[in-house]
Amino acid sequence: MLLYVFRALGPLRLPRPVRLRSRMSPSATTPVDTLENPAPQPPKNGFDRFFKISERGSTVGRELRGGLATFFAMAYIIVLNPIILGSGVDKFGHHLDNGQLVTATALMAGLSTVLMGVMGNVPIAIAAGLGINAVVSLQLAPKMSWPDAMGMVVLAGLVLMILVASGLRQRVMDAIPNGLRRAIAIGIGLFISLIGLVDSGFVSRNPDAAHTTVPMGLGQGGQLKGWPVLVFVIGLALMFVLVVRKTKGAILIGMVTMAVVAIIINAVTNTPDAAWGLAVPNVPDKIIGAPDFGLIGHISLFGGFKEVGVLTGCLFVFTVLLSGFFDAMGTIIGVGEEAGLTDENGNLPGMGRILMVDGIAVAGGGFGSASANTCFVESTAGVGEGARTGLANLMTGGLFLLALIFTPLATVVPSQAATPALLVVGFLIMAANVRDIDWGDPTVGIPAFLTIISMPFTYSITNGIGIGVLAYILLRTATGRFKQIPWLLDVVGLCFLVYFLLHPIELALGVK
Q1: pTM for this entry
Q2: Residue numbers of the domain that contains 322
Q3: Does residue 346 carry a pLDDT above 60?
Q4: Domain count, the chain
């Protein structure tokens, strides 16, 4: 039936915000599909000139639409971050208040995202980092008070800012070979695709009690069950159909349409709330709720060292620092490549400012007791919708700030309506980068392969980058090309060795 409807509609002639172009790879003789922005236009006014909207071939409408799509794709953090932090108990048996955590999460995400838009002028949204918040909740807090734990997050952010000011952080990023940069982007594409599949319920983890060698399976017990999964499947099909028909606003149209469908289905079928996950598509009983700012600034900068000692404290700060450093680096590279903002060497203009905002966001997240804030891979949802400048961040950040009082509305869109966008963007990233890797050189191809598969399989951007870097150093050294490795990359590799061997190091030093 859908085929007859689309056939009757005829071809749509609206331009797609992101399109593919063919160019020749420097390492191959076959055309490579990469993302390209429309031809740049002269600025129309000072606002346009500041954000370089026309220069990057975008429009105000496209930027706002992209910012809206990014917000919908990552609004779940308003609910998820308080759950993760709220599940932890500090050394003195204290829990963090859920209402205060919701306020802290939305406030710090909004301020950090707006700052990235104005200062960095890139469509990369920022919020409490998943993974880092678990470290804070489950590793730091049980050994000290919550203010102590958040103080260590602030210290990690300050160290990041010092690294940026010294130029060292950007030099580390520049030392990453182009093949690994492409692999990082592809790995992120697969990573966010897996996030979409898992969060939607299309793929689920098999219980450990099953004693099976298969860690994940289709739906529940190998079958797709329930209305929520159907919403995801229809939404994914709808988005891909709109994309191939080059419909403007394909991703956002798909999200909004499926959110409405989910609300209707939930109202008619009385689907259990647990089936939808964190965001239940119900019309909220109330729209406005008063924010509680009680956690803002409630930190102790050096109190944690008194509780656990200087050595253990430094290791804790190092863990937060390393995760934030490379998670953000991978995301910035991936989103920059997807948006077509990088130059021929894979470098992003204004990287120093972008990295400085990221460091500020880490410290700011700790100051607000929301855990470390970092760049979100879900920003690719907005990029896929056409966002190319920091103006999109003003929309995303503004919606986070509005969520301080409109939290019920912010959590209406279920993950099953938003996650199809992550798979669409994952495809676009894969298509744009996979042929640009020199697979004919095993010292490049093997590290790239390991980077790509490690991100989704270990559910971590940092792990993927670390494994790829170590493999690159090993294979280049094994083939007598050690001198071709930038010395900073060797330093990065050493840091990753410490990262992966942190547990035995702690045991050897007697800090556990």
Answers
A1: 0.71
A2: 59-208+215-436
A3: yes
A4: 1
